[in-house]
Specification:
481 residues, 17 helices, 67% helix
Length: 481
C-alpha cells in the first residue's frame, strides 16, 4: 500500500479512529497496530507476511535465549551470531543470490570454466533491508546490554512491523522505538496536528517534486546518447531532487503518521543539500542508516580510535557496505566507493567533524564562502547520483563522458521542466527558512504563522498544488532497497 494512494487515504483515518477511540488499552492497541501493519504490508503480496513474521520470531526468541544465558558470554555470542547470520542469509538469498551467482559465473569464465548457474526467479520483498536491519539492532543491543530482552511478543511484533516506517524507514533502534510500545500512550492533539503538517509536506515533496522530476529524469537517462552535455547535467540535477523529494518525502510522511499514533520516530533527513562538505552531507542524508552503520560496523571495527590507515579502511568498509545495501548492482558499490574517496581527504586533514552546526545560523542568507562550499558539495553529490541512477558502470561512465565532452549552453527544456523547477525552488526556499526546525511546515509560534488564516492559506495552497500539478503516481524509489 503506497502512502500516495487512494487506498492509504482510506486506510489511515480508519486506523487512526479505531486506534484511539475503540482500542484504548496499550495491549489492545499494540495488537491492532500489528494487524493494521500486516494488512498494510500484505497489500503488496500476502507471501511477504510469512517472511517478516519469521524474521520477527527469530529475533524475539534470540533475545529470550540471550537473557537466559546471562553470564555465559560464549553461548550468548553464538546465539547472537546465529541470529545475525540467519537474518543476513535470508536477506542475501532474496536480494543478492542472482548477483553473486552471475558474477561468480563470469569470474570462472575468465579461467575457462563454464558453469551453468541456476538463477532464481525470486520476488524481492518490499523493504526487506529495512526491517532486517531493525531486527538485527535488537539482537545486538540485547547482547551488548543496551536493552533488556522483551517478553511482550505483541509489542515486539509492533516494533518490527510498525507500518509507517516498515518498508522504507527510518531504521529504528530497539532502544528508542520498542520502549514506546511497552508503555501506555495518550492522544496529544498538538503532536497529531504537527504530524499532519509533516505528512502534507512529505506528500508535496513526493507527489509534486519527485514525481514531476521523474518525467525529465527517465527521458534523459533513457536516451542520454542523444542529449547534449547541458541537458545531461540538468537530468542529473533533476534526479538529485527526485531522489531527495521521494525519500525524504517518504520519511516525512512516515514520521508524521507515527506521531498520529503517539509514536516518535527519529529524524531521517536534515536538509542535506545545504551541506558544506561531504562529511556534513552524510550526517544529514538517510541519518538512520548512516548511524546504524556507524554504531554496528564502524565503531566495532575500531572507529576513529585506531591508526590512520585503519580509520581509512573502516570508512571504506562502511561506504562499500552502504552501497551494497542499496542493491545488487556494481553501480551501488561504485557509488559507495566514490563517496569514500571524497571522504578520505577530510579524514586526513581532520576536517570530517567540521560543520556540525546549521549553515548561516542566525542569518537569513549564507555568505559567499558558504555558497561556494554548498555548490561544490552539491556538484559532487550530483556526480554520485549519476552512478547511483545508471543501470551499469559503463552507462554511468558514458553519461559523465558525454556530459563533459558534449557540453554546450543550448537550453532546451520541455515546458513541464520549468514548472518542476519552480516547485523545486519552492521546496528549497521553504526548507531554507525552516532549516533550524524539524520539517518544512514546522510552524514557529512567534511569527506570521501564528495567525490561523495564514496557516490555512498555506495548507490549502499546498493541497491545491498537489491536486492540480502532482505528477503521475510513482512507487517510492527506496522500496526496491
Amino acid at each position: 500500500m503506497l502512502f500516495n494512494s487512494f487506498e492509504f487515504l482510506i486506510f489511515l483515518p480508519i486506523t487512526f479512529l479505531l486506534y484511539w477511540f475503540v482500542f484504548k488499552t496499550r495491549h489492545i492497541q499494540n495488537i491492532f497496530i500489528v494487524i493494521a501493519s500486516y494488512v498494510f504490508y500484505g497489500w503488496w503480496d500476502w507471501r511477504f507476511l510469512l517472511l517478516i513474521a519469521f524474521t520477527t520470531l527469530c529475533s524475539y526468541f534470540s533475545g529470550i535465549l540471550l537473557e537466559r544465558q546471562e553470564g555465559k558470554r560464549n553461548i550468548q555470542k553464538l546465539i547472537s551470531a546465529s541470529n545475525i547470520a540467519l537474518n543476513l542469509t535470508i536477506l542475501c538469498i532474496f536480494k543478492y543470490y542472482n548477483f553473486f551467482g552471475e558474477n561468480l559465473r563470469e569470474l570462472l569464465l575468465l579461467f575457462g570454466w563454464e558453469v551453468d548457474w541456476v538463477t532464481l526467479d525470486i520476488l524481492l520483498p518490499v523493504g526487506i533491508s529495512f526491517y532486517t536491519f531493525q531486527a538485527l539492532s535488537y539482537t545486538i543491543d540485547v547482547y551488548q546490554h543496551k536493552i533488556k530482552a522483551t517478553h511482550d511478543i505483541i509489542a515486539f511484533f509492533a516494533f518490527i512491523s510498525f507500518f509507517p516506517q516498515l518498508v522504507a524507514g527510518p531504521i529504528e533502534r530497539a532502544t528508542q522505538l520498542l520502549p514506546q510500545f511497552l508503555k501506555c500512550r495518550s492522544f496529544n492533539a498538538t503532536k497529531a496536528t504537527d504530524g499532519m503538517r509533516q505528512i502534507l509536506w512529505g506528500l508535496f515533496k513526493k507527489i509534486v517534486v519527485a514525481d514531476n522530476c521523474s518525467l525529465i529524469v527517465n527521458a534523459t537517462f533513457n536516451s542520454y546518447p542523444e542529449k547534449d552535455g547541458f541537458q545531461l547535467l540538468l537530468g542529473a540535477i533533476f534526479f538529485t531532487f527526485q531522489i531527495y523529494g521521494d525519500f525524504s518525502g517518504y520519511s516525512d510522511i512516515a514520521i508524521g503518521t507515527a506521531r498520529l499514533f503517539g509514536i516518535n520516530l527519529m529524524r531521517n533527513f536534515n536538509n542535506p543539500y545545504f551541506s558544506r562538505s561531504i562529511a556534513e552531507f552524510w550526517r544529514r542524508w538517510h541519518i538512520s542508516l548512516t548511524t546504524w552503520f556507524r554504531d554496528y560496523i564502524y565503531i566495532p571495527l575500531g572507529g576513529s580510535r585506531v591508526c590512520r590507515w585503519k580509520v581509512l579502511r573502516n570508512t571504506l568498509i562502511i561506504f562499500l557496505v552502504s552501497g551494497f545495501w542499496h542493491g545488487a548492482n556494481w553501480t551501488f558499490i561504485c557509488w559507495g566507493a566514490f563517496h569514500a574517496l571524497l571522504f578520505f581527504p577530510l579524514l586526513l586533514l581532520n576536517r570530517n567533524k567540521k560543520y556540525t552546526d546549521v549553515v548561516a545560523s542566525g542569518r537569513l542568507l549564507p555568505n559567499l564562502k558558504e555558497i561556494y562550499q554548498m555548490l561544490c558539495t552539491f556538484f559532487l553529490v550530483v556526480i554520485g547520483w549519476i552512478i547511483f541512477r545508471a543501470e551499469s558502470i559503463s552507462q554511468a561512465w558514458d553519461y559523465v563522458y558525454c556530459m563533459i565532452t558534449k557540453f554546450t549552453l543550448q537550453f532546451n527544456m520541455p515546458i513541464y521542466g520549468y514548472k518542476t523547477s519552480a516547485f523545486i525552488l519552492l521546496m528549497l526556499f521553504t526548507e531554507w527558512i525552516t532549516r533550524q526546525r524539524t520539517h518544512g511546515l514546522d510552524i514557529k509560534p512567534k511569527s506570521i504563522f501564528r495567525y490561523r488564516i495564514v496557516r490555512w492559506i498555506i495548507y490549502y495552497g499546498i493541497v491545491l498544488i498537489i491536486l492540480q500539478w502532482g505528477g503521475k503516481q510513482e512507487d517510492f524509489i527506496y522500496f526496491q532497497f
